Amino acid sequence: GENVEQHPSTLSVQEGDSAVIKCTYSDSASNYFPWYKQELGKRPQLIIDIRSNVGEKKDQRIAVTLNKTAKHFSLHITETQPEDSAVYFCAASRPLGSDKLIFGTGTRLQVFP
Amino acid sequence: GAGVSQTPSNKVTEKGKYVELRCDPISGHTALYWYRQSLGQGPEFLIYFQGTGAADDSGLPNDRFFAVRPEGSVSTLKIQRTERGDSAVYLCASSLRSGRTDTQYFGPGTRLTVL
Fold first, then answer.
1. pLDDT tops 80 at residue B1
2. 3-class DSSP state for residue B72?
């Protein structure tokens, strides 16, 4: 069935360093890959997404790369700040049908000042 | 504008009771999703509505779970004969559904605790 694996489960970095989170997906028909940030007790919020016709997308300090052949995608955060500390979820969705999101298990990012 | 809202924010109930959880999507969003998030896990898909109809209910765990969206806006997730294993945060999301995969905007969730 559909599955998204996410690594690492926890990630600690020093303020100013970069952070990378990786995901792999099983459904080769998936074509939409969003990343959500969830702070403790809050709702998931979209921070960036990528579609399968694009290999890389960047938005200020955040970038996402997609390798469709290998079925994996990654989130890159540069110049991390303490306010980046949160749980990050990757997800995948296939075209047509319900567009339901299949989520990874999350990465808890801690940025130390 | 107003985002997705959910009520109640917290619900504590006893095993065997019936509960209803409400979701108000963003105005104009035709697609509505329910997800369930257990502690330390990612959201897990339950059901999807396009307009008034449940277009995909493949994620509902069993027949104790049911959801409706009678007028194509507000949705209610209903759980009968609750069990302790139903304890989780129930998230609702909506999207514009403009013909391609659209951003899903999440509500704050309802934390359900079954004692």
1. no
2. coil
pLDDT average, residue stretch A38-60: 93
For residue B102, what pLDDT is reported?
Answer: 83
Token pair, residue B38, equals: 């257990």
Instruction: Give the closest-approach CA distance of B66 to chain A in angstroms.
Output: 17
**Phi/psi-derived region of residue B109, left when phi > 0, alpha when psi is between -120 and 50, beta in every other case:** left
pLDDT tens-place string over residues B26-59: 999 999 999 999 999 999 999 999 989 898 999 9
- Which 8-state DSSP code applies to residue B9? S
Whether A34 and chain B come into contact, CB under 8 Å, resolves to yes
Start-to-end C-alpha separation, chain B: 37
Instruction: Show the tokens assigned to B57.
Output: 């209910």
CB-based contact, A3 to chain B, within 8 Å: no
Q: Three-state SS string across chain A, please?
A: CCCEEEECCEEEEECCCCEEEEEEECCCCCCEEEEEEECCCCCCEEEEEEECCCCEEEECCEEEEEECCCCEEEEEECCCCHHHCEEEEEEEECCCCCCCCEECCCEEEEEEC
pLDDT beyond 70 at B85: yes
